[in-house]
């Protein structure tokens, strides 16, 4: 999703179009009798929940008999979008607002349904369609320590004006992005805010705990966003677009595979909430489980495999 995302997957495959290599979990559910045809190429970005999402959809489809090839942890949209538009990659779990902003340099609508319509139009010239978006979002979230929030009465981003100074920690890209630090200065008009670029989450968190940072950007599915030690500040001026997960799929695949294929994908999306996705991320990032195993267990519990 996302240009603020910590790269928590151990190896990033910085490869070109001809070098995209298939990878994925070794313990996928047993497939139903094959529906035949060419394998559907499922891709992911190079961060945890994107890989989990790709496994969820891939395994659910395999359980219905659809042949799947995985090409996971590929990197950013700059690498993936040309291959998606050419049809070499055929299925990508996307994040609506980020896809519009960073994939097409657009300004997202203010609601998930509006973004879905907008993104559908942007993808249409490239023979890519969208299926249903999920309730789950993964978007930029601003946190502060809960003791500071209680002491200063901080519940929303505009409350940061109450502080003498506010130091935000985030990835380097955050400095120039409206849904990140630039939004605090340009939209919220914070004159007391400064930014410290820290590439990975671990060091950011240590500096937040020590007081070097006042706040930190995390993903809404990050376990820290649900940790009572930290308070999520409401984005009351709406600098961060909605980021509902949505499968972007080659129209060639959609046309060839038909309604049963779409129904299998939409059934997964319908079950996905932000809290569910946060739990799946925690199982991988904090508990050290394999994304394919985490996906398999969740799908089984949901009755989808």
Provide a descriptive summary of the structure in words:
- With 305 residues, this protein is α/β, with parallel strands linked by helices.
- 37% of the residues lie in helices and 15% in strands.
- It folds into two domains: 17-137 and 243-301, D-Maltodextrin-Binding Protein, domain 2; 140-233, Osmoprotection protein (prox), domain 2 (D-Maltodextrin-Binding Protein, domain 2).
- It is built from ten helices and ten strands.
- A five-stranded mixed beta sheet has the order 7-6-8-5-9.
- The longest helix is centred in the last third of the chain and has 21 residues, at 251-271.
* SS strand fraction: 15-25%
CATH superfamily of the largest domain: Periplasmic binding protein-like II
Instruction: Give me the CATH architecture of the largest domain, please.
Output: 3-Layer(aba) Sandwich
Helical content band: 25-40%
Structural class: alpha/beta
Report Rg.
19 Å
Number of helices: 10
Domains, number: 2
Mean pLDDT: 89
Low-confidence stretches: 3-31
Question: Can you write the helix and strand succession as a string?
Answer: EHEHEHHEEHEHEHEEEHHH
Which outline best applies? globular
Number of strands: 10
The largest pleated sheet is described as: 5 strands, mixed
Task: Indicate the CATH topology of the largest domain.
Answer: D-Maltodextrin-Binding Protein, domain 2
């Amino acid at each position: 999703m996302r240009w603020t995302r910590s790269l928590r997957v151990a190896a990033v495959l910085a490869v070109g179009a001809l070098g995209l290599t298939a990878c994925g979990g070794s313990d996928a559910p047993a497939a139903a009798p094959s529906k035949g045809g060419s394998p559907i190429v499922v891709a992911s970005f190079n961060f945890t929940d994107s890989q989990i999402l790709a496994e969820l959809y891939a395994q659910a489809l395999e359980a219905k008999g659809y042949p799947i090839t995985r090409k996971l942890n590929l990197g950013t949209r700059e690498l993936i979008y040309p291959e998606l538009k050419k049809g070499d990659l055929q299925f990508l779990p996307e994040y609506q607002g980020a896809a519009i902003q960073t994939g097409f340099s657009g300004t997202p609508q203010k609601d998930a349904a509006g973004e879905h319509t907008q993104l559908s139009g942007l993808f249409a010239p490239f023979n890519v369609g969208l299926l249903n978006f999920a309730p789950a979002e993964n978007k930029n979230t601003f946190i502060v320590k809960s003791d500071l929030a209680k002491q200063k009465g901080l519940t929303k981003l505009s409350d940061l004006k109450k502080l003498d100074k506010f130091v935000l920690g985030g990835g380097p890209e955050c400095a120039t992005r409206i849904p990140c630090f630039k939004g605090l200065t340009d939209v919220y008009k914070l004159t007391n805010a400064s930014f410290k670029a820290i590439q990975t989450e671990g060091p950011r968190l240590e500096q937040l705990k020590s007081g070097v940072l006042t706040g930190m950007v995390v993903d809404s599915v990050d376990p820290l966003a649900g940790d009572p030690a930290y308070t999520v500040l409401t984005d009351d001026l709406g600098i961060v677009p909605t980021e509902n997960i949505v499968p972007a799929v080659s129209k060639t695949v959609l046309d060839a595979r038909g309604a049963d294929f779409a129904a299998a994908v939409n059934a997964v999306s319908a079950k996905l909430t932000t809290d569910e996705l946060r739990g799946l991320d925690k199982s991988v990032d904090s508990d050290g489980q394999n994304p394919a195993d985490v996906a398999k267990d969740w799908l089984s519990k949901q009755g989808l495999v």
